[in-house]
Amino acid sequence: MVRLILYGAVIGVLTAALAVFTWFDNAVNRGVTYTPTDAPIPWTDVPQIGVNAYNVQFEPDAANVTRTLELARDMGAHFVRIQMPWDDVEIHGKGDFVDRRTPEQVRSSWEKYDFIVAEAQRLGLELIVRIDRAPQWARPSDHADPRFQAGLAEYASSTGPPENYADYADFVAAVAARYRGQVRFIQIWNEPNLAYEWSWRTPEPERFVELLRMAAVAARTANPDVVILFPSLSPTDGKEPRIAPMSELEYLDRVYRAGGAPYFDIMSAQAYGLGQPPDENRYIRLRWRPDAPFRDLDRPIDSRIDVSRIVMLREVMERHGDGAKAVWISEFGYNSAPDHIPEPARSTWGPPVSEETKGAYLVGQLERARREWPWVGVMNIWFLRWGGYREPDPADPTPYFALVDRDFRPLPAYDAVRAYANNGSIVGVGAHTWYHPAVESLGEGEWRLRFTGQSLAIRFNAPAEVTLDGGAALRFDPSGDGSLAQVASGLTDGVHTCIIRSAVAPDSFVVGRERPLPWVWTLAPALLTVALACAGALMMLDIGKSVARR
């Protein structure tokens, strides 16, 4: 009996050690790319910084639109994400694009969007246009549904899909056609995994795939150059039965199972940190509070949301063979609500941070994506400024995501992002095309590449001379089979500058990093597993002997 107790204790200790090791392996390595493939992912080699222009479409003064876009440009953003609510354009009925909501100011409902698009083009900005919010005429049943009306009373922005999906597809096609050559990126719907975005019904991924399919086909027919973004799903654990009864991971898995992959070109994701630092790699944690020890027994493990949540979304993509698509972060940010905002509203998005910390965390998240996630492209900060004609509720913490105050005064976070952008583009780990913004032309046949990593390989198209960090020039010839030439390895894990001279521009390059202590992450679990197997076998052998003796 003593021997069995001893075996049991050993097995318990080894099992605990393996669990702890697995936990730390998740925290250190999960989702981190060290040795990428040599195939660049489309739509990742783009300027990194974007920003949401919240409610810019509701600015009563056109000068404020211009001012907002100028601030985005001056901060270093290349992309500006805007909302084009369907119910703000095709307002009164199918095919009716006249705004008669104010009788003394009847005008084209396209007018303000034409201006936003034109100003963005003039300032060298690219728009990401989110199209959602079906008008009343397209979903009449919602307004006779007590369930929806109860939800609307609870959440004034409640909306839902149209009853005839072709109506939405036609509108998306109208947008794609009208702004052909001006707007490339269109996001189809937003947060369809939330009940208040889906007529207060249980989210329906399979039905959404049909909406996505029809809209994507219509947009691509109207404008073959259009790029379709999947809607950013709200990160949730699926344990809120009324509002969020399905996690975004389950929702996306069902989208793929329903055949949704061909109907979007870029995945969107939200990456809010909820007050946590940008290097937080939590993934899972025990959900337990000493003041309410039995409250969460139905969900003791919390994997709800943090900066790293997008890794789990990416894993769903890869399981379905869709790893060749980029992920663009539609919204990420930190809230700096002051003490006078009452709780619990003040902590809706986690513990508030200072304005200075907000800036440091935003920059840290940009740097982390560059360093670890080569599949991430544009990262749109939420948000630049509280726009529109309505003043915010003084008790609402939402305005404290802003980088610029209501009077257009830049806050410390704005300055931090601008300083990051002014440092120039630096490419991180991953396979990249020669069109990456970190590749700077210095003149005919000469380029400068700034990267952060420990190795660099380049696919040359002609003989080249390469200088790394001011060292001696090295000569490289293109390989006969088109493979990459190893330019450097074993570098310090920091920022490096490479000068390339060649008669023909290289085709692509790969930046890599080395996994810290790689033998630990391979050997330790193997040894623990073998030790567990041996202890278990010895225990079973001892039990067998005891039974035989009886």
Describe the structure.
This protein has 550 residues and is α/β, with parallel strands linked by helices. It is built from 11 helices and 21 strands. The protein has helices spanning 2-29, 62-75, 111-122, 146-154, 165-178, 205-222, 248-257, 309-319, 355-372, 412-422, 518-549, and strands spanning 49-52, 79-83, 98-99, 107-108, 126-131, 185-188, 227-229, 267-270, 285-286, 301-302, 327-332, 376-381, 430-433, 439-443, 446-453, 455-459, 464-468, 474-476, 485-488, 494-502, 508-512. It has an 8-stranded parallel β-sheet, covered by helices on one side. Strands 14-15-20-17-18 form a 5-stranded antiparallel β-sheet, with no helix packed on it. Strand 14 (439-443) and strand 15 (446-453) form a beta hairpin. Helix 1 (2-29) packs antiparallel against helix 11, helix 2 (62-75) packs parallel to helix 3 (111-122) and helix 5 packs parallel to helix 6 (205-222). The radius of gyration is 27 Å and the shape is globular. The two termini are 14 Å apart. The model has no long low-confidence stretch (mean pLDDT 90).
